[in-house]
Amino acid sequence: MRLPNGDEVTAPTPVWGLDIQCEKGTNLSYGPWADRQREQLFLFFFPQDYQTMKVFIFIASVPGEIRQVQQFDVRLNILAEATVDILFSKLIMRDGKQENQTNAVHMNVQRGSYFEMTLPWTVSDDGYVTKINGQFLHVDASSSLNYRNLLEAETLDYRVNVHYPSVWNHHQTWDLEFNGCKATYHFLYAHKEFFQDMIEDWSSRVPPDLLHFVPYSWNFIIRMQEFELITLANGYNWVDCEHQANAHIAFCGELFDLRFTLPFTDFLPETVLLKFIIVGENVDLSLFLPPTNTSSNIITALSRNARLIEKEDRPKHSFSSEKWRKFCKLSSGWVDCWHVPELQLSISYTYHPVPPVGPSPQANVSTPEKEELLLSPIRAPHRKKSPMEIIKNLTPEQFDPTSVTADCINVDLRITKPSEIKLYGSVLRMFINLKVS
Fold this sequence. Notes:
Elements: E1 16-22, E2 26-30, H1 32-45, E3 71-78, E4 82-94, E5 97-109, E6 114-120, E7 128-143, E8 149-164, E9 172-187, H2 190-202, E10 216-232, E11 248-264, E12 272-288, H3 296-305, E13 335-351, H4 367-375, H5 387-392, E14 408-415, E15 420-421, H6 425-436
Parallel strand pairs: 1-3, 2-4, 9-10
Antiparallel strand pairs: 3-6, 4-5, 5-7, 6-7, 7-8, 8-9, 10-11, 11-12, 12-13, 13-14, 13-15
């Protein structure tokens, strides 16, 4: 279409969409089981043909012809307070029987939260990208563990971009980005197994097959503005869930940026290298001792009344108190021990993954041993035992862990600007408790 001034205006391409408005009493539940049903529906309506996808060639629309729809948009708006539950299960033994135990992450979100998803219906030269983004306002998340606290944030933005190439078994890229503002995260060692159970329930239960293997990478970015990362540092791995009389070590600051990649690019690799990069700005290390701790009053008194001086005997100002704090407030008994203007922590972890056990004996027997087992009936009865038979007769007491190659972890901490530290004896003790927990 040409305007009177001579400019040409192209009409936007048609878009199919679905708008959902959620009002009072909204409860959204999702999890691995629901995701498997979604996968079955997608496979039913869009079955995989394992063929190279045809590139869409855009042709200017001609009056009277039907225009090509290029994407399908889904938008969900929350107009009142709502709850979001992520449900998953794990197998446990109870009275000698296996049972499914249901676990959950429960979130309360406020009005204004939304979810958007764009499903492209056309393919370009390098494939297509599925986009998911949204925001939770005033999110309050808890877990089904006895220690319920998990996450509180004023805003939590999320973005997921999934790039699918035009060839079905070429490398895929999953980019996940989470941005939180004024966030408080409670870290418990039990959360490691808790989220590991969620991942195992969500992952595919089909044994890996080389003919259907698709390489992909997950790129994570987790960024928080004005954050509190709270850990429990009780002795003997003990947690008080009833009265909350726990010792804490917290990391508070203005910026937390975590980036790492999970590479699933090789089929059953011998080793996998993971790299984590953490950047922090204006980070404080804070300590809290419950009133039952004998050092609580002493450390609190030292923090409030100690007179700090510099080399020239000039009074030194204590750590600034003009910071955002929600949980780690100085008025509640917290003590700031270390202030770092800027730091960078790099962690590289090389580990040896354990391949999943497949049907016996194919998955556990290499080709030479498999040939030996197949030819054994036609050979002499007195033959040497195969290595596989020797391994089967090996008891746990006879196994030597030093016979296998160890994993390797490299940690590099860089503090580029002058920092201030108040070293209390209880800080070292809490770090030891944090390590063994």
